[in-house]
UniProtKB/TrEMBL annotation:
Keywords: Glycosyltransferase, Manganese, Membrane, Metal-binding, Signal-anchor, Transferase, Transmembrane, Transmembrane helix. An alpha-L-fucosyl-(1->2)-beta-D-galactosyl derivative binds at H172, T184, E242, D265. It is found in: Membrane. UDP-N-acetyl-alpha-D-galactosamine binds at F60, A61, I62, Y65, D150, E151, D152. The lineage of its organism: Eukaryota, Metazoa, Chordata, Craniata, Vertebrata. GO terms for molecular function: hexosyltransferase activity; metal ion binding. One of its GO terms (biological process) is carbohydrate metabolic process. This is Histo-blood group ABO system transferase-like. Gene3D superfamilies: Spore Coat Polysaccharide Biosynthesis Protein SpsA, Chain A.
């Protein structure tokens, strides 16, 4: 009987056994859907089967959000689906202010006239209705896939066909390493977005989802319908369309999941070393300037009383001034991100809390 050992010197053996600084990231969901990170795909191989594919990108620039459009389009032109055919669908009520951005040959911007809603929640939530309506009316005949993005963001690295599949969602950057218990699913049992606490593996971001036109049509139609049921019952899910998107993706598992490379906010979050690329990042946003004076104004005191430690903590971590948290939405976002801060800064926070 022969022993088949390979010859390894003592120093090589030491090197092999020495623990390395590996970072383990999840690359499939429990349903075996791939989770897309840098290094898990090869664009050169993937581009060929998608050669004749047309991709539709939906983006909303309603009211003052039109100010973000120029940078959004300019950066998308450089990074989004390079080498493939893209139709940009810009839903807007501000036609006169849509910038004339020179795009790659064959690409086009299609302006879609839509109405606005008095508050930002209304605009954000009605995106589902508008995407659903236009999917049926034209997208189904014009493109193969739809990518539905927030517009107050910019592309900062390659974002290509590796994301395409029948239905995909993006891990929310605030919760990709968070404990399942902290996910901000809708816990009010009266809402259609209600999510039992012991279900769901991932928390998805409202600002980046997509898939085949048929699947996106189904998703947006279903989300709109349940939001209307909530509306009739005078209920609004805490995270609006994002809450309903999460509920939908619990019941209809995505076939691909995008890592937080595909949605990040450098001002709010510490970038971990394993996040090798940031492909789509938040632009700085001043809510006061975006909204009309008096609209959505909010007194911080009531929330500070409700949750003073969380808010103080978040303010310290983010370096924000109290005066910058001027709207209810800001404070909600602060509280949501505070959970992340707790998880990411664990050690520091313990000592910080002891000092309070
Ligand atoms: C990055 C991300 O995951 N963002 C989600 C998050 O908040 P965000 O704080 O990112 O929401 P937001 O203020 O960016 O609003 C969502 C989007 O609606 C559009 N818009 C909004 C208001 C307006 O007056 N005009 C206008 O055009 C615009 O395209 C914007 O990007 O949670 C929201 C629901 O609470 C949505 O699910 C967002 O997609
Ligand atoms: Mn946004």
């Amino acid at each position: 009987m022969s022993h088949r050992f390979c010859r390894v010197s003592a120093s090589e053996l030491c090197a092999l056994l020495r623990p390395r600084r590996w970072t383990v990231v999840l690359v499939t969901t429990p349903c075996f859907a791939p989770i897309i990170w840098d290094g898990t795909f090869d664009s050169a191989i993937l581009d060929t089967p998608f050669r004749n594919t047309t991709i539709g990108l939906t983006v909303f620039a309603i009211k003052r959000y039109v100010v973000f459009l120029k940078v959004f389009l300019e950066t998308a032109d450089k990074c989004f689906m390079v080498g493939h055919k893209v139709n940009y669908y810009v839903f807007t009520d501000q036609h006169a202010d849509v910038p004339n951005v020179l795009l790659q040959e064959g690409w086009q911007v299609v302006n879609l006239e839509v109405c606005n809603y008095p508050c930002w929640q209304g605009v954000s939530m009605h995106r589902m209705e508008m995407i659903s309506n236009f999917s049926k009316k034209c997208f189904l005949h014009e493109v193969d896939y739809l990518v539905c993005l927030d517009e107050d963001m910019m592309l900062s690295d390659h974002l290509g066909v590796e994301i395409l599949f029948s239905l995909f969602g993006t891990l929310h950057p605030g919760f990709y390493i968070a404990d399942h218990q902290t996910f901000t699913y809708e816990h009010c049992s009266l809402s259609q977005a209600h999510f039992p606490r012991d279900e769901g593996y991932f928390y998805y971001a409202g600002g980046f989802f997509g898939g085949s036109v048929l699947q996106v049509h189904r998703l947006t139609k279903a989300c709109h319908q349940v939001m209307m049921v909530d509306h009739t019952n005078h209920i609004e899910a805490e995270w609006h369309d994002e809450s309903h998107l999460n509920k939908y993706l619990l019941c209809h598992k995505p076939t691909k999941v995008l890592s937080p490379e595909y949605l990040w906010d450098e001002r709010m979050l510490c970038r971990p070393p394993f996040l090798r690329k940031l492909r789509y990042v938040a632009m700085p946003k001043n809510h006061q300037a975006l909204w009309n004076r008096g609209e959505n104004t909010f007194s911080i005191n009531s929330h500070m009383q409700a949750c003073p430690v969380l808010l103080t903590l978040w303010l310290c971590l983010s370096g924000l001034q109290v005066t910058q948290l001027c709207t209810e939405k800001d404070v909600k976002a602060a509280t949501k991100l505070c959970v992340t801060a707790f998880l990411q800064q664990g050690e520091h926070l313990n000592s910080f809390l002891q000092g309070i």
